Amino acid sequence: MRATSLIITTFGDAILPRGGRIWLGSLIQLLEPLQLNERLIRTSVFRLVKDEWLRVQSVGRRSDYLLTQSGRRRFEEASRHIYASSAPLWDRRWRVILVVGDLEPKQRDALRRALFWQGFGALGNDCFAHPGADLTDVLDALIADGLAPVLPKLLPLFAADARLARSATDADLVARAWDLSHLSAAYTEFIGVYQPMLDVMRREGLAGVSDAQAFLLRLLLIHDYRRLLLRDPELPEVLLPQRWPGQLARLLCKEMYQRLEEASDRHLDEQVCLADGSRPEVDLSLWQRFARTDPIKV
């Protein structure tokens, strides 16, 4: 488990609804039970500052770490996917981005990584496709990722059904653009790990589980689920193979999170503090946006 990745999950799930800032000492105490020592956490936070996910604000001899504007955007976009209650519907139109100008090798690699991050599959070196992405948001994200000079060399467009290729079906396009076999196996493994825990919760509730343990389990649950979603193009159900395990994993995560929520929130309310010693208030508008309307909670 990478400490930097786990800290990103912590900010996205626990710190963002509490103002998006935390005293470094409080973050260390939250993650210490996972055997992440202080030095490792400090090093990881420094990397996140360097990568412009976080920024530091000194308060006397202490420091708060805050989400940057771009970091908050990335977290909010990820939250829309992590806490969605179901797979997206499809309007039967493909979103396509064509490379119509010459790109330097570094620019091409950066573009490919940025589009893969947003779920696009590659149909050759110069064509990227997705069935549901918002092209305006995609281009805005490319600008935020420092790829504004590349935009004049891209042609975003819509294509109906399988007209991207003269004789290809939608299933053919999916098979060409994405390898779903490894992702399917990973979802199956996730279910195998967490389903027995959920079964116990259904029978016994959280008997014998402390608030701190509930938080740690919730954190690991969302962390593992988030890592899967980073690899998941989130195709509409009509384009997925039969018996796709992703939706079962989503429902499992949703129910388990709901059962852990109250106890884990009590722990966070007690433990999360700022450098001046105050406790941050929960941002109810943000919490409702990602936790009451369309997410993991019902």
UniProtKB/TrEMBL annotation:
Pfam hit, one: PaaX_M
Residues of the Transcriptional repressor PaaX-like N-terminal domain: 2-70
Every Transcriptional repressor PaaX-like C-terminal domain range: 178-269
Signal peptide: none
InterPro entries: PaaX-like_central, PaaX-like_N, PaaX_C, PaaX_trns_reg, WH-like_DNA-bd_sf
Domain Transcriptional repressor PaaX-like central Cas2-like stretches: 90-140
Annotated protein name in UniProt: Phenylacetic acid degradation operon negative regulatory protein PaaX
Organism: Comamonas faecalis
Gene designation per UniProt: paaX
